[in-house]
Design a protein that fits this description.
The chain contains 8 helices and 15 strands. With about 325 residues, it is of the alpha/beta class.
Length: about 325
């Protein structure tokens, strides 16, 4: 591909390299320095002038470090006269800060969107945003991918004749219903109430799960509190087996180990939108690659083709 430059921050260079292999372009080098006063400096070490520049950086821990890196990459590309700057964010962590549900609370999702545009982003490519209204926080075009097709391809290898897809809450029920259609299964949803970041209550499950094989679908798993709470309800209702699927496997504070220790959970499936350290992986974990989907979206953006056509028929 001509007139394209792809750079990666330090958050997930392995994913960026895989995307570039599918595009058959080199991953351009970037230098990230830290001064004695703890300030960061970013240099893009390849020509950007009038080129279509793609900056790949999920916002994962340490989120603020990686955010500042990304902002500086945008600024560096803009200062180098890039023709267009597309931020590729496989995980937009601030998308969870999307509503004013308490007095005097910040809206991080909108603030970070404004910062990215101010820094020079011309376009954003995101994967499985926490909520669709986050699109409206950006004043530049947003292409929103999801990983339902990759997840569905994996689960179609199983016998799904007695399966129900379960969303932990009603907010994710639409995605769960779309996933169930792909698999040809039933769908159910939990009635969830969140009290704190890691304290939730699921009072009931709406739908048939008794003596059925359940696939729990969520957009991300951080501490795993929601899945563990849902698992209690599924036990009470007599679910036969449980598999867990998500796009973003953050697995903070030992969540992957806790989930893997639950005997009812046969498998935990996530994508490589965020890095999952090898040392933390368990035998129950399966990691699917979203690099082919991201690469195809990048190719279509570069060539001026439809990105939404990737999801025709879904």
């Amino acid at each position: 591909m001509r007139d394209i430059a792809v750079f990666s921050g330090s958050a997930h260079p392995e994913l960026a390299a895989e995307v570039c292999r599918h595009l058959e372009v080199p991953l351009s080098p970037a230098r990230i320095n830290r001064f004695a006063n703890d300030c960061l400096e970013v240099q893009l070490e390849a020509n950007c002038r009038e080129r279509d520049v793609f900056l790949i950086q999920p916002l994962v821990a340490p989120v603020q470090e990686h955010l500042v890196e990304l902002l500086m990459m945008c600024d560096a590309a803009r200062g180098a006269s890039a023709g267009r700057i597309t931020v590729v964010m496989p995980h937009y962590s601030y998308a969870r800060s999307d509503k004013k549900d308490m007095p005097r609370i910040s809206l991080g999702g909108r603030l970070v969107a404004d910062l990215l545009v101010t820094a020079g982003a011309s376009r954003v490519l995101a994967l499985t945003l926490h909520s669709p209204q986050v699109h409206g926080f950006f004043s530049v075009p947003v292409d929103h991918l999801h990983a339902l097709r990759e997840l569905a391809t994996h689960f179609r290898k199983l016998d799904l004749s007695n399966t129900t897809v379960v969303s932990p809450d009603l907010g994710n029920a639409k995605e769960a219903a779309a996933f169930a259609r792909l698999l040809g299964t039933r769908v159910a949803a939990g009635a969830k109430q969140r009290f704190e970041d890691d304290k939730v209550s699921i009072s009931a499950v709406i739908g048939d799960v008794a003596d059925r094989d359940v696939i729990v679908l969520d957009d991300e798993i951080a501490k795993g509190s929601t899945v563990l709470e849902l698992l209690d309800r599924l036990r009470e209702l007599g679910a036969r087996s449980v598999r867990v699927a998500c796009t973003h496997g953050l697995f903070a504070s030992g969540a992957l180990k806790r989930l893997s220790e639950q005997p009812e959970i046969l498998e935990i499936v996530c994508t490589n939108s965020v890095p999952v350290p090898e040392a933390e992986r368990t035998e129950k974990l399966t990691v699917l690659s979203v690099a082919p989907a991201l690469a195809e979206a990048v190719r279509r953006i570069h060539n001026g083709e439809s990105v939404s056509a990737l999801f025709d028929g879904l």
